[in-house]
Amino acid sequence: MPTPTEADILRHIAREEPLTATVRAFRGLTRERLGQLLEEAAERLSGSSAGSRPRAAAAASAQELRGSVPRLRLYSDGAARGNPGPSGAGAVLIEPGGQVVARLGKYLGHQTNNYAEYMGLLLGLKHAKALGAKEIEVFADSELLIRQLGGRYQVKSPSLRPLYEEAVKLLNDFSRVKLVHVPREMNAAADEMSNRAIDERL
Fold first, then answer.
1. Is the residue at 1 inside a domain?
2. Is the dihedral of CA 135, 165, 158, 202 positive or negative?
3. How high is the pLDDT of residue 68?
């Protein structure tokens, strides 16, 4: 087996390592972005040691990384302290094998908990779509959210209606959708991101 180059090592880390500790250590950093940074560093090393790789090839490599997650699990959550009050949306995307692809958080200002729950869902769905996912499994601890999306509850709130419609439109873009209501303790990672969004104004 040939001796790996530094670029080979960086590419292996970008594609195979979970990188969880690094993502947690840097606010706003996602697993996707960290992987891209490692890929870019590998490209620079390749260029300096073996001649510059064509830009088209580099773009193809990045696209390959983004297109490698046809099916994702999305854990989404929202938090509003005071309800309404300071609020945040959170989402965590996970590959079928259990590797975290992205941890997302967004500060929403003064909003209700239900508004924040929908925003967490939208945050995750948009990111999953950007990653090229074709199938999505949504896990949320909001019974209202899951039952409204499943057609069991009507959407009577004027503030939630446009968010619901946007969510339905995004879900329709996936070839397969599964909606699951889970207990709060099974949604801890997304809950953490929604609260971090408030604390750190992500």
1. no
2. positive
3. 54
Find the CATH number of the domain harbouring 118: 3.30.420.10
Tell me the whole-structure pTM to 2 decimals.
0.68
The whole-angstrom separation of Cα 175 and Cα 136 is: 8
**In the block, residue with structure tokens 């809950």:** 191
Q: What are the two backbone dihedrals, phi and then psi, of residue 198, each rounded to the nearest 5 degrees?
A: -75, -50
Indicate the burial class of 141 (C-beta count within 10 angstroms; 0-12, 13-18, 19 or more): buried
| Nearest C-alpha neighbor of 90 from the set 113, 129, 124 | 124
Assess whether 173 and 148 both reside in one domain: yes
Residue 13, both tokens: 């880390």
Buried b (16+ CB within 10 A) or exposed e, 1-31: eeeeeebeebbebbeeeebeeebeeeeebbb
pLDDT over 90 at 61, yes or no: no
57 and 112 belong to one structural domain? no
